Amino acid sequence: MPLDKLQSTLNYQFNERSLLETALTHRSAGNPNNERLEFLGDAMLGAVIANELFHQFPAGDEGQLTRLRSSLVKKDTLASLARELDLGSFLKLGEGELKTGGWRRASILENTLEAIIGAVYLDSDYNQCQAFIQNTFADLLDAVSLEDIQKDPKTRLQEFLQARKKAIPIYEVLSSTGKSHQKIFTVSCRFDDLPAAIQGQGASRRKAEQAAAQQAFVLLQSKIK
To answer: Which residues are catalytic?
Structure first.
């Protein structure tokens, strides 16, 4: 059966198969769906990854560990893992999501992986859920290092300005275009040392702000040189 194949890929056999079925059911398909399991899985994932990083990097400070954790549990990372597990092929979606390709949408894939983590926890216990997360994230955990992780552009820009007693940047959404699941945001970034506001674009407000901050930071660095 299809779910047997998925359980083999996950390297976990469910005692209560209905939990896996619920974890794969998007809210567009009705109730029960995976939203509550997603909530639980998100919390479990954050706790387990934090514990792994705490022991893996005894010399890491709070900021470094926080950035490492963010890089491992962010939407893009989870969606990529979900694609590797081929979760999209097992999703139960409503008609609207099926028509718009919901099985390949990053947000849906991310939430589904978190829901499966929540389902594993309810189906077993903390230790087995921890082992499942460790196994699923093993390659990523092996690859991360304190040297590779960098502060995001907004943080770097803000710290750069604060170190020079300058006011923090102001970000403003100028526009958002496209369909609800394919929007492009345009954001401006301005502060006292800029002759004109700098604009950035992205698939979310946060990504657009990061793009604008990166351009502003590069500009400031070039002026110093």
So the answer is: 42, 114
Considering only CA atoms, which of 82, 99, 95, 84 is closest in space to residue 24? 82
Domain that holds residue 216: 153-224
pLDDT in tens, 159-201: 888 888 888 899 999 998 887 667 899 999 998 877 888 999 9
Q: Number of structural domains, the chain?
A: 2
| pTM: predicted TM-score of the whole model, two decimal places | 0.71
**Do 102 and 34 share a structural domain?**
yes
169 within a domain of the structure (yes/no): yes
Q: Are residues 174 and 217 in the same domain?
A: yes
Pick from 14, 212, 8, 9: nearest CA to 122: 14
Residue 45 tokens, joined: 């994932």
Q: In what order do the strands lie in the sheet with 184-190?
A: 170-177, 184-190, 198-202
